[in-house]
Amino acid sequence: MGYIKSGKDDGATVHCGGDQEGTEGFFVKPTLFTDVDADMKIMKEEVFGPVGAVIKFENDEGIFAFHSLFFPSLHFR
Question: Which of 1, 4, 41, 59 is most buried, with most CB under 10 Å away?
């Protein structure tokens, strides 16, 4: 639940889910974040569980710049 809290605290919007499933263990309902920025923890780190983060880009250049942050040795142009 720490990543869910981190996403909320950083200003991402929980589009759906975001709650614990059941009363035992660490099961989380499938969760989708929107309004996510590239510098948020939920975008930079791998979240174990049914959690997704959607990031919006203004143009193709933004996509390429974001991709190069995580995969600097891969070039697809």
Answer: 4
